[in-house]
Amino acid sequence: MKLFIKSVCLLAAIMIFTTIMAPFTSAASPYEGYNYSYWKKSVPSAIPYLPDIVVDGRHTEYGLLNAPDDMFVRNDKIYILDTGNDRIVILNQRYELLKEIKDFQHNAKKDQFSKPQGIFVTEEEHIYVADTGNRRIVQLTGTGDFIREIGPPESDVIRKGFEYHPVKIAVDKAQRIYVIGRGIYDGIIEFDPDGMFTGYTGANKVKFKPIDYFWRLIATKEQRAKMALFLPIEFNNLDLDEDGFIYTTNSERNTTTPLQRLNPTGTDVIRKEGYHPIIGDIQFTYRGENAGGTTFIDVNVNEYGMYSGLDLKKGRVFTYDEDGNLLYIFGKIGDQVGTFKTPSAIERVGEDILVLDKGYNNLIVFKPTEFGRNVNEAVRHYHLGEDKESAAYWEKVLRLDANFEVAYVGIGKARLMEGKNKEAMTYFKNGNSKKYYSKAFKRYRQEILRENFGVMMTTIVLIPLLYIGFRVYRSVRRRRASAVVE
Amino acid sequence: MQLWNELIKYPFYVIVHPFKGFWDVKYEGKGKPQIALSILLLLTLVITLKRQFTGFIVNFSNPNTLNSIDELIFIVLPFFLFCIANWAITTLMDGEGKFIEIITVTAYALLPMVIIYAATTIISNFITFEEAPLFFLLESIAMFWFLGLLFVGIMTVHQYSVSKTIATFIITAMVMGVMIFLGLLFFSLLQQLVTFVETVYKEIIYRL
Lengths: 486, 208
What we know:
Helices cover about 30% and strands about 30% of the residues of chain A. Chain A contains 9 helices and 27 strands. In chain A, strands 3-27-26-25 form a 4-stranded antiparallel β-sheet. A 4-stranded antiparallel β-sheet of chain A has the order 4-5-6-7, with no helix packed on it. In chain A, α5 (about 385-400) runs antiparallel to α6 and α7 packs antiparallel against α8 (about 435-450). The radius of gyration of chain A is 31 Å and the shape is extended. The N and C termini of chain A lie far apart (about 110 Å). The mean pLDDT of chain A is about 90. Chain B is mostly helical. Chain B has one domain (about 1-205). Helix content of chain B is about 80%, strand content about 0%. Chain B contains 8 helices and no strands. Chain B has helices spanning about 1-15, 20-25, 35-55, 70-90, 100-110, 110-125, 130-160, 160-205. Chain B is globular, with a radius of gyration of 21 Å. The mean pLDDT of chain B is about 90. The interface of A and B includes residues 429, 434, 437 and 442 of A.
């Protein structure tokens, strides 16, 4: 009896101890990890990023943020455009205040922003602000000194009734300035380095369905006047990658190209080698409160071609590699730490992902988990052409999430490089990549044929020879037999 | 040997000599309904195997949703639907074919599909992406061969002209649609009836 009580006590002690000591890893995530399989089904996945800290200006020298609309990260400095307070807050890597820009000297007078919505910082740390309320672009030095302002574009090609409300801005390495205006569907407004308007770039094509055309044909003039115009969609945000290509987002409903990568001539050249179109969520309801797919509000591209789109409606971040493979999804609309109300901008500091929330007036810093870090490393090594290192990271990823099809293909590619064709085939089959499976299979087939060439040729030559020999033998015997009879 | 010639070799003779072959099916009594049904079952088997064992490169079926019973339903059901619809139509349109003959002819016409699908299933395991068009070519040859045989078969069995056969085919398709519609209607009404009786019964039980 005593022994029994003792062992029960010990068991209880062990149980309490292990419960206390168990790490709170899974419980800490406010959202579910999922991804889409080759068969377009959402499957559980590991959590790639977890919220780390929330920056909202509480108990700091710069005070609370108010409806911040945009931010930019350059040289590990975080520039938050605090729209509601008409100011720029510059933070360092540890999210401590470096500088606050509230006003600047313009023509010996004090000048201010008015509800600015877009910010960009060049490599020389010049700050460009899309000063929406004042309908101008303002260029400042990194210390907040005024350099110049650029007013509305002036040209013959601008249509009548053109209202200039610059909302987002980007500046490429050649100092060309790209501006997205609210309600402007002609494309991205482009200024040359001197601030002269040079034209629109990347205009979206007008799309309409044949059935709409049919209705338009049979409608009367009055009816036609009341119909919605076929207007091209307008962009709502942009980012530049290392090579100067423009990544844009647009909020057209049911579009197949909500994320675009525009080359200098304005054509979409985004790579679509992934399993699914780059539209964020693939499965969604068409009716009800949460109807509709993903609406991208911002995009961020990093130095190895990985880009993340921020979903306004469901508060999700979709990350793709440069080939267009959906890598991971995280985020949610909600009221826990790490969920959003009205997400407005996304940026990266190294491997950390920052999401600015206009609704909750804060900035959330997401740190990669072991899974997220391994995926990022694998993608980075693949981008650098180091297949073997990439495969090593993909193997780590698979240990954490065996559903991760992209990882199988990644390992398969490395095996194919090493000449292990049979092994590569297995990986490509697991990764559901018919294209690469075919490549591996072709080499494997050649290998087999080459190895067994001798045997096969021998059989091909021998079988007819044997057959002919048999026939000759038989006819000779028959002839002899008949000769005997005669 | 006689049996072998009659039963096994004859279907193969028919698919390469359809006019003479189907004529003999009708007037010389060479077609056997047992053989016809065997061909049908063989096709089901081949298509089920094809779904599962076609080479990865040209296999687009989701292994999670494969179901052999479904294959049976999607082959055997349309087969009999076609035969019944065709029989129903041709009796009204002076067709000379009997129901058994229609079944025999339709099933014999399926034989090229059995052979070619079996072959492509094996071939597909040894081809690459670049050779895939060959695979799809063979698949479509099987389809067109079947359609051609079916056309000749129905024409011979009913002693129709070409234009009348085409018309019969169109009407048969429509009748198949009507039959499916009536079937769905019947089952849906039956379901509602059952629910009604069930509800009334429950209502009575609760109140007693």
